[in-house]
Amino acid sequence: MKISSIKDIFENKILIDSIVKVKGWIKNKRNSKSNLLFIDIYDGSCVNTLQIIVNKKLLKNNINHEILKVTSGCSLSVKGKLVSSLNVNQKFEVYMHKINVIGWINKPNSYPMSSKKHSMEHLRNFAHLRPRTNIIGCISRIRSAIFYSIHNFLYINNYHWVSSPIITSLNTEGAGDMFSVKYAKNLENNKITYKDFFGKEVFLTVSGQLSIEAYACALSKVYTFGPIFRAENSNTTRHLSEFWMLEVELAFADLDNIIEVVEKMLKYIINFILKNNKNDLLFFEKNLNDNIVNKLKIFLESNICQINYQDAIEILKDNKIINRNYMFLDVELNLDHEKFLVDKYFKKPIIIKNYPKDFKPFYMRINKDKKTVSAFDILFPNVGEIIGGSQREERILYLDKRIKELNLNFNDYSWYRDLRFYGTVPHSGFGLGLERLIMYITGIKNIKDVIPFPRTPKNANF
Ligand code: ATP
Ligand code: MN
Q1: Domain end call among 53, 84, 115
Q2: In 3-state terms, what secondary structure has residue 216?
Q3: Does the N terminus or the C terminus of the chain have fewer Cβ atoms within 10 A?
Q4: Is 383 a pocket residue for ligand 1 (Cβ < 6 Å)?
């Protein structure tokens, strides 16, 4: 017999009064004064649980007496009749005909995920069991739907997915903060040896941008989507050592063109989540006291406000956050500045553009003023920067000047410079940190809770 998912049942895809088979895990169990036992089960297809009504009298004629001993967390297979519920809080329930325990909970008293509420910090110690909680379940479904919607948006807009390498010798973002993967560890003659494998220093990638620029200069519209590794020693609520980044690269495009793509994409994603993960969002709304649905709807209705870097500095001067006497070219926005702008001043997502060249990597296109670059960051309330992008320097003379200024090695970038020698085109792109976007959409405050097995300094358990 086909297994029905709880999601299909709650979406009215299964006929009332039909016999269904459902498999899942117990969330709660209650005895009634009458001869009934109520068991709520979940199967991960949605946030809802399905109530199973067990008639204890029926059990007497059945060898299935063991069912009375189940505890939360046990896995079950249930066959029964689907009926509409008289209880206003749930639309459906199942009258049990046959029930089997698939897996018991060993020592129920010490089961770490018993139904009482745990803090997010506590749950991090049980990264292998925490997906069983409602909150991590909701985050996981939304995370998956966001990935799907991004691929979908890019596919229908004719972008090609390019797999950029994870092992690389280049550091896109300038020096430092990379994980080395120099050595091969082998077992030879019962002895472990370490050998320089590639014959030069290589690292786990911090960005796939340079690689996809090569593909954008042939396929026009491309993206890469994969894990990114950064050895930055920042113990914050918004940094991971391993995270996921979407990078999009568009040929024949300037800064305004690429900002338009980002905005369209963000709206597509948020619209998709509002439509397909409404119940997951409502769960956060109820449990985190955050008006998430409304926040997302407002986002859909307006365009993101854009300001120049120079104007952002002016706002900070006017509000006495930074000293009047500083030149905007000499002040690098720090986290506190960003927080003031986005959380206190604008109170909504903002785009800051045209940054001083000294605060940005070598590949960004120099503006006419020769002091700023055609770059933008998008900052979101409570999360900070989620997206960073720029127009890339397509003119070899300017690119070489920057490589020299920053003391980078010309040999390392010879293939990248070739792209400017042979049929160069203006092109632009951006990088979006997936976990930070998930934080914004769900309202979850710590990045460690929106990725399955977080890696941070001194922490690579599980
Ligand atoms: P931040 O200033 O917040 O450290 P960044 O300037 O280093 O960010 P980029 O190098 O521009 O970020 O990377 C692009 C995007 O990747 C960022 O906008 C952010 O969403 C995400 N990101 C960067 N570093 C991390 C990290 N350590 N963990 C999770 N996401 C990150
Ligand atoms: Mn950083």
Answers
A1: 115
A2: helix
A3: N
A4: no
Q: Residue whose CA is closest, atom 16 of ligand 1?
A: 433
**Distance between Cα 387 and ligand 1 center (Å):** 8
Please report, for residues 135, 139, 381, the alpha-carbon distance to residue 447 in angstroms, rounded to integers and kept in the order given. 14, 11, 15
The distance of Cα 358 from the centroid of its chain, to the nearest Å, equals 30
Residue-averaged pLDDT of the chain: 94
Assess whether the C-beta atom of 230 lies below 6 angstroms from ligand 1: yes
Q: Is 354 inside any structural domain?
A: yes
432's enclosing H/E stretch is: strand 427-433
The residue whose CA has the least distance to atom 11 of ligand 1 is 388
How far does residue 253's CA lie from ligand 1's centre (Å)? Answer: 23
Do 11 and 145 belong together in one domain? no
> What is the pTM (predicted TM-score) of this model?
0.96
**Within its chain, how far is the Cα of 18 from the centroid?**
39
Structure tokens at 28: 């709660």
CA of 3 from ligand 2 middle (Å) equals 46
Where in the sequence is the domain holding 58, given as residue range(s)? 6-115
Contact 240, 443 (CB under 8 A): no
Q: Answer yes or no: is 231 within a domain.
A: no
Check pLDDT > 70 for residue 115.
no
pLDDT digits (tens, 9 = 90+) for 173-204: 665 699 999 999 999 889 999 999 999 989 99
457 lies in some domain: no
* Beta-ladder partners of 69: none
Best residue among 360, 436, 444, 449 to mutate for probing ligand 1's pocket (most ligand atoms within 8 Å of CB) is 436
Residue 299 and residue 432 share a domain: yes
Tell me the DSSP string of 97-145.
EEEEEEEPPSSGGG-TT-SS---HHHHHTTTTTGGGSHHHHHHHHHHHH
Tell me how far apart the alpha carbons of residues 364 and 232 are, in angstroms, rounded to a whole number: 22
CATH value at residue 331: 3.30.930.10
String of DSSP letters for 322-380 = S-TTS-GGG----HHHHHIIIIIII-S-EEEEEEEGGGS-TTBPBPTTSSEEEEEEEEE
- Residue 84 is assigned to a structural domain of this protein: yes
Quick one: average pLDDT of 446-462?
96
Measured in angstroms, how far is the CA atom of residue 240 from the centroid of ligand 2?
10
The SS3 of residue 458 is: coil
